[in-house]
Amino acid sequence: MQTQERISLHTQAALALVCAIAYFYAFKLNLYWFDWFEFSPGANWIYIPSGLRLLFVLVLLETGALGIAAASLLINYLFRPDDHLFNIVTAMVSAGAPYISRYIAVHFLKLSPQLSGLTSVGFFKLSVLFAVVSATLHQIWFSWQGITDNWLFSALVMGVGDWLGTVLVLAFASLMIKGYKFMAGSSTTP
């Protein structure tokens, strides 16, 4: 996206920080609401932060991915303070999965890089693609680290959880945009 190059470094840093804070608190909220819904370590039946991952990378590209990586790194260090390799790679997977999904969608599914003309069918395809990429990458990494006993079942559960979280976040974002447009439209008419 060409517009990101025109955004100042300070603004990009602020946006990355906002993304990191939002992702961190979405994780805490998800932990509070759905901790009992965890299938295996890192595999939840509902995972709201995954929707933020995709949304931030779709809209903010590298800036969003940087915020996700920073928050993921912090979250991982809270749970595993001495496992540096695990924490760094998991943060890279968390930030990289939506970025890879966006790349695949733009280059192979013909998604507009500016997201113009994105329909509900397009959002559906993109959310499924992201859930598959994210769950597969995470669970291969977790399995390799010995955290997941059965990576296939954990990947299926994580894929469902990532997809549900993504649908919830994208639906909420869509409602917010429609509400904003409605409010902006009604304030200009006498």
Structure in words:
This protein is mainly α and 190 residues long. It has a single domain (3-188), classed as Arp2/3 complex 21 kDa subunit ARPC3 (Orthogonal Bundle), CATH 1.10.1760. It is 77% helix and 3% strand. It is built from seven helices and two strands. Helix 3 (49-60) packs antiparallel against helix 4, helix 4 (62-79) runs antiparallel to helix 5 and helix 6 packs antiparallel against helix 7. The mean pLDDT is 87.
Which labels suit this protein?
single chain, 190 residues, mainly alpha, Arp2/3 complex 21 kDa subunit ARPC3, two-stranded antiparallel ribbon, 7 helices, 2 strands, 77% helix
Protein topology:
Elements: H1 3-6, H2 9-34, E1 38-40, E2 43-44, H3 49-60, H4 62-79, H5 84-107, H6 120-144, H7 151-188
Antiparallel strand pairs: 1-2
Helix pairs in contact: 2-3, 2-4, 3-4, 3-5, 3-7, 4-5, 5-6, 6-7
Rounded average pLDDT: 87
> Could you say which structural class the secondary elements and strand pairing correspond to?
mainly alpha
User: What CATH architecture label applies?
Assistant: Orthogonal Bundle
How are helices and strands ordered from N to C?
A: HHEEHHHHH
What would CATH call the class? Mainly Alpha
- Terminal CA distance: 37 Å
With strands numbered from the N-terminus, the spatial order across the biggest sheet is 1-2
Q: What shape does the CA trace take? A: globular
Q: Give the fraction of residues assigned to helices.
A: over 70%
Rg estimate, integer Å: 17 Å
Strand content: under 5%
Mind summarizing the main beta sheet?
A: 2 strands, antiparallel
Provide the number of structural domains.
Answer: 1
Output the number of helix runs. Answer: 7
Q: Give me the CATH fold name.
A: Arp2/3 complex 21 kDa subunit ARPC3
Low-confidence stretches: none
- Tell how many strands the DSSP assignment holds: 2
